[in-house]
# Entry
Amino acid sequence: MSDFEYILRTEKLCKSFGHLEVLTDVDLGVKMGEVICIIGPSGAGKSTYLRSLNQLETITSGKIYIKDELFLHREHNRTIHRIEPDRQKAMLLEMGMVFQSFNLFPHKTVLENVMIAQVLVRKKSSDAARRLAGEIINMVGLSDKLDAYPSKLSGGQQQRVAIARALAMEPELMLFDEPTSALDPELVGEVLAVMKKLASQGITMLVVTHEMGFAREAADRVIFMDQGRIAQQGTPQDIFQNPEGERLQQFLQSIL
# Structure
């Protein structure tokens, strides 16, 4: 048993760009081993929420807790509390992130892409990094591509390398920001298959996705965001089979 209730929690998290309020009072807790899918229309604030968690966006106000420890508290664009820098860096390393774009180093092989952050950031030896990289690359089904460069890979293969790179940092929480949205339709399945495998292994995942089939099959909880707020949440059955609220019903009718 862990000695914390939530691996990640936000309280009244708000984010504005100028006068445009993108997130409003987002309260969400993620438990260890939970798979949460965030769905909703474009512009609902889903990706901004994910980017706020790992500090790619600076929140306007609210609190972020990691393992029940207050990580950041801001009010009116002013930081009230932030943990000291070394501790902050260590806590941020517990979050792995997979983006829409793959962001691989084009001049490095698949193996080198998955090794590099382990060596530079985690300070692992090359041998240890190579061993773990090999295991994870095998897990995502690319053991025959160790020496290939990104330009020789399909989009689905590149995204699987990006997932392997994030996993190689051994984070406790994986964030996925629409990981299949940049892929051709026939390549989506291979990436979702890897993500389902991770979910079945008990890896904690927070996933922004337009893939309703994945949300229905893999999620423990589905969050419906609309206009910067959590409009509804529940089990996949609650959301997809018994949707309440006109806005959720409209959204599902438009995409299913």
In short: The radius of gyration is 18 Å. The longest strand covers residues 20-30.
